[in-house]
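Supplementary Data S3. Sequence and structure tokens for construct A.
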Amino acid sequence: MRLFAVHRYIGRSAAEAPAALRMAFALCALTLALSSHALAQAVPVDAGAARHVAIAARIAGDDSRVRLVMDFERKPGFSLRYLGNPDRVVVDLPETVFAFPEDALEPRGLVSSVRYGTSGEGRARMVFGLASPARIDLVETDGEAGGATQKLVFDAVAVDREAFSAQIAASDWTDAAQEAPGAPTAPVSDTLTIVIDAGHGGIDGGAEGPAGSMEKHVTLAFAEAFKAALEAEEGIKVAMTRTDDRFLSLSARVRLAREQQADLLVSLHADSINVKSLRGATVYTLSDKASDALAQSLADQQSGEDTIVGAKLENAPEAVAAILVDLARTETRVFSTGLAQQVLNSFEGQVKLINNPLRHAGFRVLQAPDVPSILVEMGYLSNPEDEKLLTDAAWREKTAALLAQSVQNYRKTILAGRR
């Protein structure tokens, strides 16, 4: 059972995307076998029906009232419930592809955050964080006269704390599977499955230090130490993309993480750069746009390794591969950033960090759409001092233990939020 399977179908609006891209998006959505969301169990709506497509969305308002408008290809059923601590509204929908631009639902006024994605087989969910207590009024569900779309319109209206508490008390969180006589319910596991990815390997040796240390050997040794440290922690299951000196394409590493139903992927590296004086650890998360020139350079360098050995993105048509970055967003990226921050918190004062150690770029190994992923640059082999540390067994064990503790801290944070 996956503890943190977070994911969201994200795309461009139907009007903006060419036909080939829309077809590719649909194919990708159909082939990604995504499991249930960890927020809560949802009530199935229109279970078994063909999936809905939300093709446009907009939000407007202020601190007293906010209106949300969504355009669907056909009218969806829905259910609405309230949660406190923090205050939020949950809208459950039938299976839905959210095909509008990511910035279409920027939070404003009463609505402090917006999240959406799949929440189990045949289901989707939207979660609206509230800046202050509010109720949700359904305004209309009819499309415009002669139009080809159906509108779903909600108004968030400010209310007092007592009224909001009453809404929470009236919310029904009983899962449909529990309502059916004799229907088994799946247990919720507290075990986190983490895949450790030792960067490079085989013909792809990676960076080489002044003293001759090869990145592929450094990363594998650290991965083994990291695995041992994680296995000493409670509630963590560990797998590795490689356990020996073999080549794996970047896409194969992503595929292995998904096959393991990983809750987290941590990719380990020790690259080389032209600035020999630069040293220290860095943690990277996925982004369409690099945070800086260094992040872009490293992402280009690692993506280029597959090209050298003739590797291609596996098990995905070219058009689908082109939109994987668009899919790997939102909740998955939020969880990735949360893990990255935990790593930096654990490293602070214990492991040397570069300036602005939390960075992001389009690393292909981080592009699993439903697996929160980070890339940890443990140091730079191009720097002699870093090379000495990276090849020192005592430093490796100490740093691996800190990294394992950050994963455990992340797990505990997620479990606390889930409860």
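Construct B, processed identically:
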Amino acid sequence: MGKLKLVVLGNAEELGRKVNKELKKINKMDTDYLVKITESRFSNGEGKVAINGNVGNTDLFIISDVGNYGVSYMMHGHQHFMSPDEHYEDIKRVIAAASGHASRVNVFMPLLYESRQHKRRGNESLDCAISLQELEKMGVDNIITFDAHDPSICNAIPRLPFENFYPTHIILSELIDNENILDVLVVSPDMGAMERARYYADMLNSDVGVFYKRRDLSKVVNGKNPIVEHMYMGADPKNKDIIVVDDMIASGSSMIEVAELLKSRGANRVYLIATFSLFTEGYDKFIEAYDK
């Protein structure tokens, strides 16, 4: 194993600086672990990455936030915001640029690419498994992420280390230290998040509830069957402090509806916890509802 180096893509610069600072503190050295890179885009949207420093015989960590929708470039004269697909391609470009030089290549994606497409229904693509296998074939030695949507996706790469860290302890510590939580109830906003909610409930020694999303299976809107009703099952939320737990939210509409339904049932305070917020719209509406 060689010296540790960091390649931080433009979508994770703040995180990269913090990691670099912590490494200096841990190792009690003023060594800069960051390796400069150049990310270029052509007018048609194609790109390339050049590593401007020496990564030979290094333990290289590539840091990328594929969920960062605020990075843009000019494509055909128009501002274009980068998608997760484009961020993922840039990770592969860094791997290709480091190929044959770094002794080990580690990919750190706080949000695992395509993690919501982790299982197949009918003739669907299996994107998360395919991307992980692709990284393995390119010579990646380790993949690191936070709170994968379905941790069993690691079965797609059984010979490759897959480090899936949970922020549960930190979240609960912050909540307990800063909020006077009394009679608490943990609630899952849907059946898919039930295992995560039960874990939180075990840590807090509390009861647990769940909402079942009843959908109209005769319609498809934006690729999904629209939700007709959120049906609650579980302990009575009346006069309880509620912790609603999920791993990621996009628009936040389901969380807002769940919070409103819990308040209508007499809940005291409602805390909405999501590891990743993938807001593309409706952020102000979500914050307004959360503040209530």
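Residues 13-27 form the longest helix (15 residues). The first strand starts at residue 3 and ends at 8.
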